Predict the structure.
Amino acid sequence: TSDILPMFLSQLKSILAFVLSDDKIINDVNRIHSRNDKDGTKQIWNKRYPYLLERIVVTVMRCCIHFFDLHEVKPSLLSSLHLIESLPANFVCELWGRLGCGLAIILRSSYGNFNCKDDWVLMKKLLEKTAQSEPDRGFIFDGIACCVEVASSDENCISGDSSSSQNNEDIKQSLPPLLPEGAEALIGVLLGFISGEHCEVNACIRGPAMGCVEKLQSFISRSNSLAPAAVTDDTGVISSSGSSTQADSILHSTNIPVTVSNETLWMNNATALCKACFSTNDPTSAMHGVDHLQRLLLTTNSESLKDNYWFDVIDMLTSEQPTFENVRVQHCELLGKVLLVMLPYLSSTKENLKHLEEVVHRVSSIVGNNLRDGRSTDNGVGILFEKTVQIVTNMTNVLCMEQFDSSGVGFCSWAGETFLSELKKFGAAGGSARMIAATSNTIKIDVVN
């Protein structure tokens, strides 16, 4: 194998160089795809080149599946994958589901053999390019989901099937642990499924993709906070003094504070989840989006992110309202929890106060819309009205507590009063601590008189 693969790679380079340098072949491909886009028909080449390319890809995929753990042939296999990644998108589309199926199998069975950052950069490019093709899309997601399942197979195994769990455990024991660089690469691909970057959003994929991202994001945060510092050797291979068992314990730990190590990745995750929250045609994905976003925001160490990232997320959350009533309730609850956590922290910086004032007014507008829409039902007040009153009342009571405003500028108290005034407009402020106190004092005075 070690003798044949370099020869095959040499021939592969020659073939692809010929195909990609022939303008007539490329024009044929573009013409076919242009015609397909216009009239909706599906035509294929009547030349030998597509078949040749397909056979090449199948051969490369099979070699990677069976020989990727052989160190002496791995460089040739990676070079072959680089050549396939360099193919134009129109050529990749002609490969049908072959590429996606092959990548899924490679990812599931050999993820631990991608042991440097460059390997994962290549894999991410291949996965993202292939996910643009509808026949391959399901293969790509299934491959990533299986990789996450195998890498974390224990009592949290997704399938719950004992035979599957044992199979996953066998694969995991034969591989090095998943690298944080690998987890970041897989998150990048999964976010495309959540946000619709790869394709029109698929409700069947969106929710499970959020779960995979959450598990991988937690793994990255915990591995960075607990694992020994990684060491890169002269070949670019990442090694660590930590063991596979330690990596597994990091992956499954749930009681460690989450510190953000990659702000861009965290922000991309939050942005994709915000888009899901405001889905106009998929209430299930919208609910999943709110749920996962709440866990992301409330488990993140506030000080591990710059203030502008927090403002970006809060601005996205308050820029519009969800379409569906049950999602609006959860969205309102999320806003209340985020404000209770972030207002004391952000208001301690004087430069943030003007922006925070705008946020409070936007949230007040959202509260007013919920109360107005929740009261305009045929049966009087609806669940949207009742839940909004409950959420905002609790938030107001906490914000108006003297010991809560640690900054000393009185901003939290002002915010609480602003939300209380919104409740008063709809006659719904009776549950607030200040209104109860005021009512009690009035009654006491009347009795004395």
